[in-house]
Design brief:
By secondary structure, the protein is mainly alpha-helical. The chain is built from 5 helices and 2 strands; from the N terminus they run βααβααα. About 65% of the residues lie in helices and about 5% in strands. Bound molecules: zinc ion. Zinc ion (ZN) binds next to helix 2.
Length: about 100
């Protein structure tokens, strides 16, 4: 059983979904994962050890102290990196090459 979580993961995911309508970038699953992974690398992880039920309480408490502008900035720089270099549709090709 998993006993520790990176709150930042959930925050970036929900922030991504909020920003999605404003993104001039592909947001398919592959690109979404690429952007979120990029953003998470820019941000300090925020690990908590707790039961899953407590996570949302901790997340809300954390959010009131953490300016979401940091998260938005990280996501937008992820968009800039992924845009024009989308990897979607390459999986089939890769599998054939291997
Ligand atoms: Zn895509």
């Amino acid at each position: 059983m998993r006993k520790y979580y990176n709150l930042m993961e959930a925050l970036v995911e929900s922030c991504f979904d909020d920003l999605k309508p404003m993104m001039d970038c592909c947001t398919c699953d592959q690109c979404r994962n690429d952007i979120i992974a990029y953003a998470l690398n820019q941000l300090r992880p925020k690990y908590v050890s707790s039961d899953k039920g407590e996570i949302y309480t901790k997340m809300n408490a954390f959010l009131t102290n953490q300016p979401t502008t940091d998260i938005i900035t990280a996501i937008m720089s992820g968009v800039n990196v992924v845009r024009g270099h989308e990897r979607h549709g390459q999986n089939e090709k890769k599998e054939q090459e291997q």
